[in-house]
Every structure is written in structure tokens, then in C-alpha cells.
């Protein structure tokens, strides 16, 4: 027999599929364990060897838990809506649903491009996924439930008194009975008060407008990141250095009417919930920073010659007498109102310039100082002194109130701003309000050891005393109050894209109406092109059948809109994070047509026990999914407050890029060691053109691109062209991608799985080096030689030796501990040690090799199944009980002592560990080797440390 991984792996993958070996049950008597991977976006590029790292780790853990007797849910699906598929559709004229389907299932797209297909690639690696529960967020049978959740959010408000979301009907009941004066809700700012009589007298449209100010998802004019090149709004994490991550198009700030999610209602619960989950401290800290809880005060500064005022949130109200100017965000709604005619042109130019910078860029840029004086003045609440009002891009419209009371003596950015514009009209001298503090060179930002000075009734007070006092005084004069603020802002939920979930919304007189849940899903219509319309509407504006017939409850031709029975549908679609904000619940009951999951399934699975995915989702997906989970808990659907008990972020597998060096201005490439200071341009070349000796296959490189066909090469003296090497992110654009298919075809999936786990700790980044794979493949062949040779099975029923049992149980103990602590790399090392020891011991005992196959099966499941079958077992190894570690086999009963004479070891002797010093000495002195060494002499001293050393001196 011979180890043939391709044949073995195909056989067992077919067996698992036919027998549904990994199907989880929703009504099992076994304890449950839910292991989840962050599901992939299925691009046409397919998987590279970096992608499966987390999947292999979760699979090892899932298989181990099955061996322990758990009912394991380990599902997989696809986050299949999104901008990349839409962009590819625009470029190639293909339908996004077609390209997405080919990317998942494999095949040839309309461009003639052969696509491996994510499903086939995943199956080839031998994952124990329950494929009966597969979800695709772009399938109508999935997104009908996303639409349903949106409707629940629309029909809910957040009651601060009960600290939970409630049905909007409970709010209208309060309005009808007593107006809104006593309502304690998370809602829009500046809500106008009304009585119960006024509410009941309002027209239906007016009531709907008021309710939009309270709903958990609502329409509002919002500052967004608008990308004209892509024709859509982008999230902050889709922008890099002021341009779109995809395509590199410029991004500007723009006001648009958008759907938003009132995630800010959950800020405190999102913050406190971090204390109850087992996540890395770095991820928790990222979320804490994003939520950004601040304790301080709201202060109103009245504007001179105006009935308006500027509201400011500050964490340092104790420094109010140090205010020398105010700064508004360029987008602040008051800017246009207060700017004087003399300053108008300068202000408008500055606003236009600022619109081209993203919020993230503005926050990160602490060196550039820019701003413009509006010409307006506010009034200090206590001194009544005029305070000049500026605009500056270091203030963000969405954080706090979009306004800052600038105290240069106590804040570094205010200090830098004041000094930069020192001497200009509208910039006052810096005031020092701290006793015994020198601010001539820098601001004093500390709260510790502060004594307030030059501050009227605050003089002599420390930070805490002054803060308490100033809030009391602000409340007395009606110009402020204490407040807790959060950096977390409501999430924009609209995208001007085609390839996303349609909103279940139509409009009557410009006001949104929800389509009844019984008529869901509202399916994406066909469109001729996926670009915005000529008049700037989103791509759905191109749809000819996209209106809602309220009489027949169906989507009809847009020409039939009469605003009486037939109304226009929403043209925006939901963002990419909509479908991923609840998908783990769908896996619990994926075939349920009537609801997103049954109460019974939700109660059984509860939440995810282990979640593995990339740290890049720290504040996006993870924050939004926690928000949706908490909302669904409030509404009685989700059984737990938090969705993911334990989270592990796998590190990145890095690629080893290869570079050729082109002499600048020429088509000549010089070998690495021949550069000698010449001006060269490093260019990525495909790593498949380079051998293990770093030598470039010049002919393949010439065929790589048309402009390389006539390239000339300056090689080493031996005629070889040597490339440069660099470790970088594995990426198609860097031509350093290694596909798992290639590794599986050459060495087998078990080799790939073991090697990826062997590379290093799961959470650390590590470089890929194909050269190490052959060693792991050799290990698997050596493992097989314990079980069979060229003539067949060589396993015996011989009783195992003490050394055999010791090797096995060391491995059982180590592997179980490693898997529980997610230290997968050291398990692989232990497998190698064990197989080496058993080979040296010439062990072929069934009593050893049968449990060894079980122990290794989570890591190398195909060969484990094959060996298990060869041993005569008829069922799959997948659910066999994991061997029990027996400590007795590791207890040493004897010791191989080194026997030394005057400190030099001359021979060893094996003795029982329970002997006394006297007994050991007697045995050693009678040993023929000792007698020979002493040659008739008597030692001066015999040093014996039981269990350690024997030394005869003199």
C-alpha cells in the first residue's frame, strides 16, 4: 500500500457528503457547541492559502468537540451582496447575481474566465461544515428576513426608562394620553413639545413626521462620504487616504437624505456588554474607543445679534472662563446663517476644500492647522464677553454637537490653532486659568493637581469641585446641564447601489411606509445598467418595474405610479453589513420559511460559543451585529444579550513576494546582485516564475505581459537572473498568491491543514514558505508506515510496551490542552515527536495506533478516517470518543542514571526510583563497570541525589 492523499481525500469527502456526517441537530440530547467563522465575500479571485487559516482552526476545534460528545453546529455561507460584484458587473456587463453564483459554485463566466468556486475549494480542504444550513445573503429567501428585521426597527423606539426597545404603539399611546413632555426616549435633538390634545389634533402626516424623530431606523439629512466615481455613499472603513478603497476614486463630504440606524441608543449597553464576553483586550479597546463615552456638560453660547445659540458638549466645563474663541465644523448648520458678508467668500472656499477630506483623514491629521473666521461672535454665559466664532476641519459635525468651546490654555489643538492665527482679526489672546502653571510653550491638559484661577466663582477649586459648581451655575441661568456623551454616531444605512438588499419601503407624499411582512421578500428588479441614472438617482432608478401597488400588494411598472394606489419604491439599497448583522441566527434554523429562526432553535443554540475571524472587523461588523442582537433580544427574539461568547482573531498569512529590477527609462532588467547602485524600479513578478534558488524563469516572465516580450536581462555571472524577495500581504495585485488547490493537488489537504496550523500561533501574522510543506508531507507518510507497508496492514494485537503508552498519553494530554487553549502549532510538533518515538520503538500495536488515529483526526481527518477504516472500523471516526489521558502512563517508575567518576560520566544504569541512597550505592559499587573504573581504589566520597545523579569522587 502507498499513501495516496488525492485518492483518500476524495473518497472521504464523498462519504461525509453522502452520510451527512457533520449535520447538527436542533433537538439533540447532547450538549451544544456553536463554532462560527466569519463568512467570506465570494470574489472571482477565489481562496488563497491565507484565507483558510481561521477555517482550519475552527474545524480542528469543531471536530475535537464532536469527539468530546458535543452536538456541534459548524456552518458556512457567503456574504454575497456588496460593491465588488457590482463594480465587476459595470465593467463586464454581467449580472451581479450571475457572477456571484459562479464565484461560489464555480464555472466559466461570460468573460471566459475559469472560476474555481468557493464551495469546491472549501470542500477540497475537508471542512466539517453542515452544508445543509448554508446561507447566501443575496438570496431572496435570506434577505426577506433582513427586510423583516428592518421593519421591526422602523416600528420600534428606545425607552430610556425601561432601557430597551419597545413597539412604536406604546409611544403613540403615551402621546395620545399625555403628549411628549414626559417621554424619556432616544430621539432627534430639538424635539418640539406637544400636549395630548395637540397630538390627537395633528394630521396623520404630521404624526408620521414626529414619529420619524423617535424610530430606531429613520430618514434624516446626514453628512456622508460621497464617492462620485462609484456613485455611492461609503462607510469610513471603505476609504483610505481620502479615496475609495475600491478603485481609488476621490471621496467628498455631502449632505444627503439617508436611512439611519439609531445605534447610539445602545451605546451604554454596547459598552457594558464588553465586560461579559471573552474577547481580546485589543478588540474590546477598539470598541470602547469607537463608542467613546465622555462625561461632561452641555453649554449654550448665545450668538450676538441673533436668537440662535451654539450648543457645545465639553468634558472640561471647569475651564469655561478660559474660552477665547469657538470653532464650528465647516458643515455645521449655523455656518451659513452667521457668516458675515465680508467673510462669506473665504468661508465658502474653505467649506468646499474641506468637503474633499474624509472624517477619518481629518481626525488623523493633527499636524495641518486650517480654519476661517466667520465674522460672527457668541456671548460668554457668565462674563458676557464677545467670543469670535471660527470654522475648522478639526471639528467634526457628527461628534458631539459639531462645535467646540476653545480653551487654548487647556487643550493642545486649541492652543496650536490660537497660536497659528495669532494676531488675526477674530483671534483673542490666550487666557491662563490655571494657578501656578506656565502655558507659554504648551497647553496644560491635565485634570490632576489643578487649581482654577482667573475664573470668578471657580477660583481656588480643583477639577472635581469646579466641574460640579459650574454645572450648578449653568443650570441656574438656563444655559447648560451635566451630560454623558458618546462618540458613537447613528449608522447611515442607505447605499446608492444596486447589489444590496432592497428596502421594503414605498413613499406616500414623501413619507416612508413599510410593506407588510406577509408580502416579503421585495426582490431586486432587473435593470439594464448598474450605474446611477442621468439625473443622479441610484441604479434602481433605472428599473422599469419598481413601484408598489397597495391594492394588489405587488411590484408593478413605474409608469403606473398614481400616488393614489400605486406609489414609488425606495431607490437606495441596504449596506453590506445588513445581512451580516444577524446571519449566525439564520444558521440555527436555515430552512425555516416562515421566520428567521424558530423560538425553539434560538433557545437551543442561544449564541455562538466560538467565533473566529479577522481583526479588521473590530468596529464595523462586530459592533453592528452586537447592536442588532441586543435589539432582537429587546423584542423577544434573540435569547441572549451578546451574540458571540468567545472571539479569536486569526493572524494574517503573509506572502513572499518576488521582484525584478528594471533599469529606469529602459526595458532592461538587472539581476539583484548586479544592481551596484544603479537606479532601478522594483516590479512584482509572479512567484510561480521563481524556483527555490530565487532564480527567475525568464521565458515565462517574457510571456507575462506584452511589454516584457522584448525585454533584455543582465544576469549573474552564472547566467541566472536572481530576484529580490520581500514579505508582504498576500494579494493578487502583488502576484504572491499561493492557492490551496495547488497545495492540495500536490500534497493533499491534510498536509495543508497541518502545515497552516504548524506555521505559528493562530493570532500572529506569519509568512508563507512553501519549502516547509514537504516536511509535513513526509511526516504523514511516516505516520502511515506505522499502520501499513507496501504489502498491506502491519498492525498487530501485541500488548503495548510502557514506552508505547508513554508516547501515546503524552500526545493525548498535549493535544487536548493545546486545542482547548487554541495553541494548534504545538500540537503538530507533538504529533511529529510521537510518530518519531513510536517508529523508533517499532510500535505497530492496535492498542496504541487506534487511539492515535482519533487524536490526529481533527487536524488530518482524511488520513485518520482511512486508517480507522483499515483497522476494521465501519463507522466514521468523526464522532468516536476522544481518548482519555491516563496520568499513570507518564509516571516514571525507574531512572536512567548517569554514573560519573570525578565529574565525568562513564556509563548509565537503570534503577527503580523508589530506592534509598544506601541501596543505590550498594548496587553501583557492585557493578562490574564501577569495579573496573576504580581499579582497586576506594572513593573518598560517593555523592548520590536520588532521581538525578551518581558521582564517585577521589
TrEMBL record:
The UniProt annotation places ATP binding at 732
Subcellular localization is given as: Cytoplasm
Q: Where is this motif: 'KMSKS' region?
A: 729-733
UniProt KW keywords: Aminoacyl-tRNA synthetase, ATP-binding, Cytoplasm, Ligase, Nucleotide-binding, Protein biosynthesis
Segments crossing the lipid bilayer: none
Primary location:
cytoplasm
Any one GO MF term held by the record is: leucine-tRNA ligase activity
Methionyl/Valyl/Leucyl/Isoleucyl-tRNA synthetase anticodon-binding domain: from which residue to which, for each copy? 805-917
EC numbers for this chain: 6.1.1.4
Domain Aminoacyl-tRNA synthetase class Ia: from-to ranges? 11-155, 726-755
Instruction: State the similarity comment.
Output: Belongs to the class-I aminoacyl-tRNA synthetase family.
| Name the UniProt record assigns to this protein | Leucine--tRNA ligase
Amino acid at each position: 500500500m502507498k499513501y495516496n492523499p488525492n485518492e483518500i481525500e476524495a473518497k472521504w469527502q464523498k462519504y461525509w457528503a453522502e452520510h451527512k456526517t457533520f449535520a447538527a441537530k436542533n433537538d439533540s440530547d447532547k450538549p451544544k457547541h456553536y463554532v462560527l467563522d466569519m463568512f467570506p465575500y465570494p470574489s472571482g479571485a477565489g481562496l488563497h492559502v491565507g484565507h483558510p487559516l481561521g477555517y482550519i482552526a475552527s474545524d480542528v476545534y469543531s471536530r475535537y468537540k464532536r469527539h468530546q460528545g458535543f452536538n456541534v453546529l459548524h456552518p458556512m455561507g457567503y456574504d454575497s451582496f456588496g460593491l465588488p460584484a457590482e463594480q465587476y458587473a459595470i465593467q463586464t456587463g454581467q449580472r451581479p447575481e450571475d457572477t456571484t453564483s459562479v464565484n461560489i459554485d464555480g464555472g466559466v463566466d461570460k468573460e471566459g474566465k475559469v472560476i474555481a468556486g468557493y464551495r469546491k475549494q472549501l470542500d477540497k480542504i475537508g471542512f466539517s461544515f453542515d452544508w445543509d444550513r448554508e446561507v447566501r445573503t443575496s438570496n431572496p429567501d435570506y434577505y426577506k428576513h433582513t427586510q423583516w428585521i428592518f421593519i421591526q426597527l422602523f416600528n420600534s423606539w428606545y425607552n430610556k426608562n425601561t432601557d430597551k426597545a419597545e413597539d412604536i404603539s406604546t409611544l403613540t399611546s403615551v402621546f395620545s394620553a399625555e403628549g411628549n413632555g414626559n417621554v424619556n426616549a432616544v430621539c432627534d435633538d430639538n424635539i418640539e413639545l406637544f400636549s395630548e390634545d395637540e397630538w390627537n389634533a395633528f394630521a396623520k402626516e404630521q404624526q408620521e413626521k414626529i414619529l420619524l424623530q423617535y424610530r430606531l431606523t429613520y430618514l434624516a439629512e446626514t453628512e456622508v462620504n460621497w464617492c462620485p466615481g462609484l456613485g455611492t455613499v461609503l462607510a469610513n472603513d471603505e476609504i483610505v487616504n481620502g479615496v475609495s478603497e475600491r478603485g481609488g476614486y476621490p471621496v467628498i463630504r455631502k449632505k444627503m437624505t439617508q436611512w439611519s440606524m439609531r445605534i447610539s441608543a445602545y451605546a451604554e449597553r454596547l459598552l457594558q456588554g464588553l465586560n461579559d464576553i471573552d474577547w481580546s483586550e485589543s478588540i474590546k479597546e477598539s470598541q470602547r474607543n469607537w463608542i467613546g463615552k465622555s462625561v461632561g456638560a452641555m453649554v449654550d453660547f448665545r450668538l450676538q445679534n441673533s436668537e440662535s445659540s451654539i450648543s457645545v458638549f465639553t468634558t472640561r466645563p471647569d475651564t469655561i472662563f478660559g474660552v477665547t474663541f469657538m470653532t464650528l465644523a465647516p458643515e455645521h448648520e449655523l455656518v451659513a446663517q452667521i457668516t458675515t458678508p465680508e467673510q462669506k467668500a473665504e468661508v465658502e472656499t474653505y467649506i468646499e476644500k474641506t468637503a474633499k477630506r474624509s472624517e477619518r483623514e481629518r481626525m488623523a491629521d493633527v499636524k495641518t492647522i486650517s480654519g476661517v473666521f466667520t465674522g460672527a461672535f457668541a456671548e460668554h454665559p457668565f462674563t458676557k464677553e464677545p467670543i469670535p466664532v471660527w470654522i475648522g476641519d478639526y471639528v467634526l459635525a457628527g461628534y458631539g454637537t459639531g462645535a467646540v468651546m476653545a480653551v487654548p490654555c487647556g487643550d493642545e489643538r486649541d492652543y496650536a490653532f490660537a497660536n497659528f492665527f495669532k494676531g488675526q482679526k477674530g483671534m483673542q489672546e490666550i487666557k491662563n486659568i490655571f494657578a501656578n502653571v506656565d502655558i507659554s510653550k504648551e497647553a496644560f491638559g491635565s485634570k490632576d493637581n489643578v487649581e482654577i484661577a482667573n475664573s470668578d466663582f471657580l477660583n481656588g477649586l480643583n477639577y472635581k469641585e469646579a466641574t460640579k459648581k459650574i454645572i450648578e451655575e449653568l443650570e441656574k441661568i438656563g444655559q447648560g446641564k451635566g451630560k454623558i456623551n458618546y462618540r458613537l454616531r447613528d449608522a447611515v444605512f442607505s447605499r446608492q447601489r444596486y447589489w444590496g438588499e432592497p428596502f421594503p419601503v414605498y413613499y406616500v407624499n414623501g413619507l416612508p411606509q413599510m410593506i407588510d411582512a406577509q408580502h416579503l421578500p421585495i426582490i431586486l428588479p432587473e435593470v439594464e445598467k448598474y450605474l446611477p441614472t442621468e439625473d443622479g438617482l441610484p441604479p434602481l432608478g433605472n428599473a422599469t418595474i419598481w413601484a408598489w401597488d397597495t391594492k394588489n400588494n405587488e411590484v408593478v411598472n413605474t409608469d403606473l405610479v398614481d400616488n393614489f394606489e400605486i406609489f414609488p419604491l425606495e431607490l437606495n439599497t441596504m449596506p453590506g453589513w445588513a445581512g451580516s448583522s444577524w446571519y449566525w441566527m439564520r444558521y440555527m434554523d436555515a430552512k425555516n420559511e416562515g421566520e428567521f429562526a424558530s423560538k425553539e432553535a434560538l433557545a437551543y443554540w442561544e449564541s455562538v460559543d466560538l467565533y473566529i475571524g479577522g481583526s479588521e472587523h473590530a468596529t464595523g461588523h462586530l459592533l453592528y451585529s452586537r447592536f442588532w442582537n441586543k435589539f432582537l433580544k429587546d423584542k423577544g427574539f434573540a435569547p441572549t444579550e451578546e451574540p458571540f461568547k468567545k472571539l479569536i482573531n486569526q493572524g494574517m498569512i503573509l506572502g513572499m513576494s518576488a521582484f525584478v529590477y528594471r533599469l529606469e527609462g529602459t526595458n532592461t532588467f538587472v539581476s539583484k546582485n548586479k544592481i551596484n547602485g544603479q537606479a532601478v524600479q522594483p516590479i512584482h513578478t509572479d512567484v510561480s516564475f521563481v524556483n527555490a534558488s530565487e532564480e527567475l524563469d525568464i521565458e515565462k516572465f517574457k510571456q507575462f505581459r506584452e511589454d516584457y516580450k522584448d525585454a533584455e536581462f543582465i544576469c549573474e555571472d552564472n547566467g541566472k537572473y536572481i530576484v529580490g524577495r520581500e514579505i508582504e500581504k498576500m494579494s493578487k495585485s502583488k502576484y504572491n498568491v499561493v492557492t490551496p488547490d495547488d497545495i492540495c493537488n500536490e500534497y493533499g489537504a491534510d498536509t495543508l491543514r497541518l502545515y497552516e496550523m504548524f506555521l505559528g500561533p493562530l493570532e500572529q501574522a506569519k509568512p508563507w514558505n512553501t519549502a516547509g510543506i514537504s516536511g509535513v508531507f513526509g511526516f504523514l507518510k511516516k505516520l502511515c508506515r506505522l499502520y501499513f507497508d507496501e504489502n498491506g496492514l502491519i498492525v498487530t494485537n501485541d500488548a503495548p510496551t510502557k514506552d508505547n503508552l508513554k508516547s501515546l498519553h503524552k500526545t493525548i494530554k498535549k493535544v487536548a490542552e493545546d486545542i482547548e487553549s487554541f495553541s494548534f502549532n504545538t500540537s503538530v510538533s507533538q504529533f511529529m515527536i510521537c510518530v518519531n518515538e513510536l517508529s523508533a520503538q517499532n510500535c505497530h500495536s492496535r492498542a496504541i495506533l487506534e487511539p492515535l488515529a482519533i487524536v490526529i483526526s481533527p487536524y488530518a481527518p482524511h488520513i485518520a478516517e482511512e486508517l480507522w477504516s483499515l483497522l476494521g472500523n465501519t463507522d466514521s471516526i468523526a464522532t468516536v470518543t476522544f481518548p482519555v489521558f491516563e496520568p499513570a502512563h507518564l509516571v516514571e517508575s525507574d531512572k536512567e542514571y548517569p554514573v560519573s567518576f570525578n565529574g565525568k560520566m562513564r556509563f548509565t544504569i537503570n534503577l527503580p526510583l523508589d530506592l534509598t541512597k544506601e541501596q543505590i550505592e550498594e548496587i553501583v559499587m557492585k557493578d562490574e563497570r564501577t569495579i573496573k573504573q576504580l581499579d582497586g581504589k576506594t572513593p573518598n566520597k560517593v555523592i548520590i541525589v536520588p532521581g538525578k545523579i551518581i558521582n564517585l569522587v577521589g
